[in-house]
TrEMBL record, chain A:
Membrane topology: Multi-pass membrane protein
Domain of life: Bacteria
Protein's recorded name: Carbohydrate ABC transporter membrane protein 1 (CUT1 family)
Keyword vocabulary terms for this entry: Cell membrane, Membrane, Transmembrane, Transmembrane helix, Transport
Homology family: Belongs to the binding-protein-dependent transport system permease family.
Subcellular location(s) of the protein: Cell membrane
GO terms for biological process, alphabetical: transmembrane transport
ABC transmembrane type-1 domain sequence ranges: 118-326
Transmembrane segments: 6-29, 117-143, 155-177, 204-229, 251-269, 310-331
SUPFAM superfamilies: MetI-like
Organism: Litoreibacter halocynthiae
Stored PANTHER family: ABC TRANSPORTER PERMEASE PROTEIN, INNER MEMBRANE ABC TRANSPORTER PERMEASE PROTEIN YCJO
This protein's GO CC annotations: plasma membrane
Pfam annotation, one family: BPD_transp_1
From TrEMBL, chain B:
Predominant location category: periplasm
Species in which this protein is naturally found: Litoreibacter halocynthiae
Family under the similarity heading: Belongs to the bacterial solute-binding protein 1 family.
Alphabetized InterPro entries for the sequence: Bact_solute-bd_prot1 (IPR050490), SBP (IPR006059)
Protein name: Carbohydrate ABC transporter substrate-binding protein (CUT1 family)
Length: 340, 411
């Protein structure tokens, strides 16, 4: 392709990517280096239906002038990144010095909001991603060997978890594990403990979130692998059969190597998705037990006072996290590309 | 087709009748767009405002109003010409300077609005309140009768009654309240802390000071109460707690005045539950003499970045909406109205008792929202037994201070 036609060919998508991906990121990054101006406050008398009280209020006239001069806010450099609600360098250092051994240090670390969120996010990603791939793979193998007449309905049902909106899917599970729901009561009966509650126990809540994550994402892996299975070379499979390979050996030595590039693809997508885990935490109302980086951003923006810089800093840290997480896969893809 | 025309005619007749029932409201011109929370009393106000003719009147009532109102009022001209807010959420609008003082408009169009409805900040009218709200005790009279106890007036009595009810085998978890982690839980902390006589900040500054004896006592009382709650209490917001109540699983509950009507109506529960649901005043805790609750008002504001014409139209429409003519048989019980002509019903006894008992209003401080978020994020760690009360209070202080520094309230 000529350079000029290539240029015109990619121009529309480049413009769209700049407008909707690059600029917002630039805006978020720059926001994260600024904090609000020092507030000019005055004591004022507030009156209402319940009488009058002396209270503090922001002096609008004084503040307006400062805002006019520097609309972005006060330059804070990396202060937001290093404060207690983010990387908390000071608190981590203090915990390191004062802690009594590694487990104690870990506990202090998990008490800091960013590391608490990171802890759950990484655990969730590390457990849900491989389980999703495994489950999706086995479902694909199973569906592939189902009789032809049953294939359509089986595929439809296998896709259901992905068709159901995350919010609705997790709400259904949320009600089922309620202390008075069918799964919650069943669990109490099984363990013979009437006070056992999934929603009250951090461990069980984590397990439930991860079960939900696998349930919701497995159909995606299934669809990709199922498509891949249709391209497996039948000649190779048949010759393996002639050589006396069992079903397991055929999967192990023919099918899996064939699907390996797809595993990379699914892993890439799932790593990104799982690192952004958010909806289940909201709909399971799990924030008392588990928070994720995305939830932290949502929490900063959802309060009565919006913490824009704090949310921006967490967003940048999330982007950096995803980049680190994806780097092995990306490097591998690059090498494959280079070899060709 | 015939039925369609018929129903249209019937509907228009109804609209005309409704219009005729209340005083006429005619505005010369302008645009009115109201954003607010979604519950019956606010819907009534928005509907009444829409009766006015001459201006285009729209309303967006949603539970997400808080995330929309600042953004929707920051542009010039602002999308929303009015936000319906409470004493906590007006602060964000004042901080961002998106609402205007109403003194001139009150003088021109609002002479009939009684003084007690006007919310003034530094002498300037910033909002017009139309209803009051507070959290008080709801109880089941039949259950208390069965265990032979009087209606509790303090949290210690609640604990005694809860134990009696559990021991008598009537209910396993007789206590309820909106204890969902986040905003609700933080609000319960605020109530209890105020009830213990605590001060949130060092006087005159934004420096937090809750890591003290009152703070510890507050957390310990909350934990003692949770022993008698459904084990899922950290996920029970007002809706969840209401469901527990209506299912007949709870006999003593801390609940919003605006929700008592839902508990006492015939929908959603057995007669035994709704017939015996009674409302009492606010609960006391410790010996501070201040009830463990906060007073709230809901009111409307007018956006700053709009033309004088739109501001006048907005003010007139909403002044009409909170006029005495809005109150009728249907709307009377929807809230504790601050409007002239309001006649208290049994459902509103709690809120009125809270006002009479000298409860404190929720603080209208620019940095209170930051503390509310910080508490909501950390209190669950204590209730689930992960850390000590002192550690939790220290965490709240640290989380608040970091946020307040970012917002420029603390150096």
């Amino acid at each position: 392709m000529k350079h000029s036609s290539f240029f015109w060919f990619v121009l529309p998508s480049t413009l769209l990517m700049l407008a909707f991906i690059a600029f917002p990121i630039v805006s978020v990054v720059s926001q994260s280096f600024y904090s609000a101006h020092e507030q000019v406050v005055v004591q004022v008398k507030n009156c209402g239906p319940f009488g009058c009280t002396m209270e503090t209020s922001v002096d609008q006239e004084a503040t307006a002038a400062i805002r006019e001069a520097e609309p972005l806010g006060k330059f804070a450099g990396l202060d937001i990144y290093t404060d207690r609600n983010h990387l908390a360098f000071g608190e981590v250092a203090a915990a390191w010095v004062n802690s009594d051994g590694l487990p104690d240090f870990g506990r202090s670390l998990m008490n800091l909001p960013f590391y608490k969120a990171l802890g759950f996010t990484l655990t969730y990603t590390a457990i849900v991603t491989p389980l999703t791939i495994l489950l999706g793979f086995f479902v694909a193998i199973a569906v592939n060997s189902v009789a032809k007449a049953l294939k359509g309905p089986t595929i439809f049902f296998s896709l259901l978890p992905m068709i159901v909106t995350p919010l609705v899917g997790s709400l259904i599970l949320f009600w089922m594990v309620d202390a008075r729901g069918i799964l919650g009561t069943g669990l109490q009966w099984l363990t013979d403990d009437p006070n056992l509650s999934v929603k009250a126990s951090t461990g069980l809540m984590w397990i439930m979130l991860m079960v939900y994550g696998v349930w919701h994402a497995a159909p995606f892996a299934f669809v990709v692998f199922y498509a891949g299975l249709q391209t497996v070379n039948t000649d190779t499979l048949e010759s393996a059969m002639v050589d006396g390979a069992t079903r397991w050996e055929r999967i192990r030595f023919v099918v899996v190597p064939h699907l390996l590039p797809l595993v990379t693809f699914v892993a890439l997508i799932q790593l990104m998705d799982n690192f952004r885990v958010f909806e289940p935490i909201v709909s399971f109302q799990a924030s008392a037990h588990a928070t994720s980086l995305s939830y932290a951003i949502y929490n900063d923006l959802g309060g009565e006072t919006r913490l824009l810089s704090s949310a921006a800093a967490t967003s940048v840290l999330t982007i950096i996290g995803i980049a680190i997480l994806l780097s092995p896969v990306l490097v591998r893809t690059w090498r494959d590309f280079d070899r060709k | 087709m015939k039925t369609f025309i018929k129903s249209t005619v019937a509907a228009s007749a109804l609209v005309v009748a409704a219009g005729a029932a209340s005083a006429a409201c005619t505005i010369d011109s302008g645009r009115v767009n109201i954003i607010g929370n979604e519950f019956p009393a606010i819907q009534t106000v928005a509907t009444a405002a829409a009766e006015c003719t001459g201006a285009t009147i729209e309303a967006n009532l949603t539970a997400d109003h808080q995330t929309l109102n600042v953004a929707g009022m920051s542009g010039n001209p602002a999308e929303y010409t009015s936000a319906i807010v409470a004493n906590s959420s007006i602060v964000a609008l004042i901080n961002e300077d998106v609402i205007q003082p109403l003194d001139a408009l009150v003088a021109e169009y609002g002479k009939d609005i009684p003084q007690r409805q006007l919310i003034t900040v530094d002498g300037k009218v910033m909002a017009v309140a139309f209803m009051a709200n507070a959290q008080t005790l709801a109880y089941r009279s039949d259950v208390l009768e069965e265990v032979g106890l009087a209606v509790p007036s303090t949290y210690d009595e609640v604990l005694v009654a809860a134990k009696a009810i559990r021991d008598a085998g009537i209910m396993e978890n007789p206590v309820g309240g909106p204890y969902a982690a986040g905003w609700n839980l933080a609000q319960e902390f605020n109530n209890m802390y105020i009830g213990h006589g605590g001060e949130f900040f060092e006087p005159g500054t934004a420096n937090i000071s809750i890591n003290n004896a009152q703070g510890v006592a507050t957390l310990e009382m909350m934990k003692a109460l949770t022993e008698y709650m459904n084990p899922d209490y950290l996920t029970h917001d007002s809706n969840g707690t209401q469901a527990e109540w209506e299912a007949g699983n709870v006999a003593l509950m801390h609940m919003w005045g605006s929700r008592m009507q839902n508990l006492m109506d015939t929908e959603g529960s057995e007669p035994q539950v709704y017939e015996n649901t009674k409302v009492a005043g606010p609960l006391m805790v410790g010996d501070s003499g201040v009830p463990a609750t906060t007073l709230w008002w809901d009111g409307w504001t007018v956006a700053k970045n709009i033309s004088d014409e739109d501001a006048a139209a907005t003010f007139q429409a909403l002044a009409h909406a909170v006029a005495p003519s809005t109150l009728n048989d249907t709307t009377m019980d929807q809230a504790v109205w601050l409007i002239e002509g309001y006649e208290p019903a049994p459902v509103s006894e709690g809120v009125l008792a809270a006002v009479k008992a000298g409860s404190k209003p929720y603080p209208m401080l620019p940095y209170m929202g930051l503390l509310h978020t910080a508490s909501g994020d950390n209190i669950a760690d204590f209730l689930t037994g992960k850390e000590s009360a002192e550690q939790t209070l220290a965490d709240i202080e640290a989380a608040y201070t970091a946020a307040a520094k970012e917002q420029g309230y603390v150096k």
